[in-house]
Amino acid sequence: MMNAIQPDRFTLTKLSDSNVVQRVLEGEKELFEILLRRYNQRLFRVIRSYIHSEDDVQDIMQDAYVKAYTKLGQFNNQASFSTWLIRIAINEALQHIRKNKRRLMNYGKTESLENVFQLPDTNQMNPEKQAITTETRTLLENAVDHLPEKYRVVFVLQQVEGLTNPEIADCLKLTDSNVKVRLHRAKGLLKEELFKTTHDTSIFEFGNHKCDAMVKNVLERI
């Protein structure tokens, strides 16, 4: 079992992935924690694009990290460490789906994505803005949850995690043109889903106190 990095050693976090990998392979096993902390959020989002249950996602994350650690000697720097790790995580997620296909058929019907979109810190907002931010996050996450898997994964990798199209192609073993097509389709479907969700006659409503205030102000001016 590895010991956690001591606080005074966190200056090591400035090391590149390749340098961390090399030092871990040379015996500094505790430095693997740097890679865990560096990629926890990304791995969560990637796996959550495939898997419904957050508990399962966290289990798969652990399996992916352990597999990456045991195969660290196979990392050859031909791709970025991030891409290599994402491939392992996706493979673990797909294996989980194959083993639990029947249970996962109801993906996305009861829970929404959690912590996928990083919107502004609500602690710094007044209650009204907090409510709006929370609603916005919920709408986005529910809409993304309704995307077919092949579009959802590409969308999350590019729009949320900021990977380039060539990086996504490398992770998913697709052509650049396929990535572009899937991303375009994902955005189109997302717009449709958001429109369905928000298609309400009350949008931009001008009534109640707004109407009263307008009447009052105009009457005072005429």
Summary keywords:
single chain, 222 residues, mainly alpha, Rna Polymerase Sigma Factor, Chain: A, Arc Repressor Mutant, subunit A, 9 helices, 0% strand
What features would you describe in this structure?
This protein is mainly alpha-helical and 222 residues long. The chain folds into two domains: 15-111, RNA polymerase sigma factor, region 2, helix turn helix motif (Rna Polymerase Sigma Factor, Chain: A, Orthogonal Bundle), CATH 1.10.1740; 113-199, Arc Repressor Mutant, subunit A, CATH 1.10.10.10. Helix content is 62%, strand content 0%. The chain has nine helices and no strands. The protein has helices at residues 17-25, 32-48, 54-70, 81-99, 127-145, 149-160, 165-172, 176-198, 208-221. Helix 2 crosses helix 4, helix 3 (54-70) packs across helix 4 and helix 5 crosses helix 8. The longest helix is centred in the last third of the chain and has 23 residues, at 176-198. The protein is elongated. The relative contact order is 0.08. Residues 104-112 have low confidence and may be disordered.
Termini gap: 80 Å
The radius of gyration computed from the alpha-carbon positions, rounded to a whole number of angstroms, is 23 Å
**Would you state the CATH class of the largest domain?**
Mainly Alpha
CATH fold naming of the largest domain: Rna Polymerase Sigma Factor, Chain: A
Count of extended strands: 0
* Oligomerization category of the chains in this entry: single chain
The main sheet comes to: none
CATH architecture label of the largest domain: Orthogonal Bundle
Strand content: under 5%
The CATH H-level superfamily of the largest domain is RNA polymerase sigma factor, region 2, helix turn helix motif
* Structure class: mainly alpha
Helices and strands, in order, run as: HHHHHHHHH
Mean pLDDT: 81
Which shape, going by the Cα principal axes? Answer: elongated
The helicity comes to 55-70%
Q: How many domain regions?
A: 2
Count of helical segments? 9
Q: Which residues form runs of ≥5 with pLDDT under 50?
A: 104-112
